[in-house]
């Protein structure tokens, strides 16, 4: 596992870990330890460039019995740090919605949709913006979660609310980006509060 430390934008530190294990995806095995959101159909959709957000998404899927869906762009983001920052800045500033590789086969079946993103330049990544623009979330609970390198949530949650002002959001979670995922107690506490 290769560990890389990045500085993106005004002091936002991202620690990223490139993981070689692919996530279980829709159609794969569904985790069985369903405590929060019992009796509801849960989707955990996420974009992860380095593996940190993927690790948290996998934890959430295990805890809720949810299905994982990886958000991927047709044109991958660069691995070279400076090029990645440059592209991210341009897309965020210009409101670019990158084309995505796949769609959720049947979004209507889900009651709760977790949406995960790393914090890039104080907001969520354009790929997640593209994902959110593709679906009707009427009648669903949306649960944002974000990973960061020390900058916290910043504008991630408020920007997502602004994109989908009519959506029924539950409070977002923010977790330091680590290859091992979120602190188990912090994650469990957040999930249990959401499910009350």
Walkthrough of the structure:
This protein has 196 residues and is an alpha/beta fold. The chain has one domain (34-194): Flavodoxin domain (Rossmann fold, 3-Layer(aba) Sandwich). Helices cover 28% and strands 24% of the residues. It has five helices and nine strands; from the N terminus they run E-E-E-H-E-H-E-E-H-E-H-E-E-H. It has helices at 52-64, 81-94, 126-133, 156-163, 184-194, and strands at 2-8, 12-18, 42-46, 67-70, 112-120, 123-124, 141-148, 168-169, 173-176. Strands 3, 4, 5, 6, 7, 8 and 9 form a seven-stranded mixed sheet that branches. The radius of gyration is 15 Å and the shape is globular.
CATH homologous superfamily descriptor: Flavodoxin domain
Low-confidence stretches: 1-34
Specify the CATH class.
Answer: Alpha Beta
Instruction: Give the name of the CATH architecture.
Output: 3-Layer(aba) Sandwich
- CA gyration radius, whole angstroms: 15 Å
Q: What's the main sheet like?
A: 7 strands, mixed
Q: Sketch the topology as an H/E string, one letter per element.
A: EEEHEHEEHEHEEH
Strand content: 15-25%
N/C terminus separation: 37 Å
CATH topology call? Rossmann fold
Tally of DSSP β-strands: 9
In the residues, how many domains can be counted?
1
Main structural class: alpha/beta
What is the molecular shape? Answer: globular
Average of the residue pLDDT scores:
85
């Amino acid at each position: 596992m290769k560990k890389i430390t990045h500085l993106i934008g005004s002091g936002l530190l991202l620690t990223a870990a490139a993981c070689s294990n692919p996530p279980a995806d829709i159609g794969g095995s569904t985790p069985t330890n369903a405590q929060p959101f019992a009796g509801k159909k849960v989707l955990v959709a996420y974009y992860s460039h380095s593996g940190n957000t993927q690790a948290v998404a996998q934890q959430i899927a295990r805890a809720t019995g949810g299905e994982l869906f990886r958000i991927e762009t047709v044109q991958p983001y660069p691995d070279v740090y400076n090029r990645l920052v440059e592209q991210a800045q341009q897309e965020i500033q210009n409101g670019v919605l990158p084309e995505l590789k796949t769609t959720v086969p049947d979004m209507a079946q889900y009651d709760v949709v977790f949406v995960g993103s790393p914090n890039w330049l104080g907001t969520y990544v354009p790929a997640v913006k593209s994902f959110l623009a593709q679906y009707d979330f009427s009648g669903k609970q949306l649960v944002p979660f974000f990973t960061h390198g020390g900058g916290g949530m910043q504008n991630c949650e408020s920007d997502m609310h602004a994109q989908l002002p009519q959506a029924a959001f539950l409070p977002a979670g923010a977790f330091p980006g680590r290859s091992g995922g979120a602190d188990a107690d912090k994650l469990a506490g957040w999930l249990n509060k959401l499910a009350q």
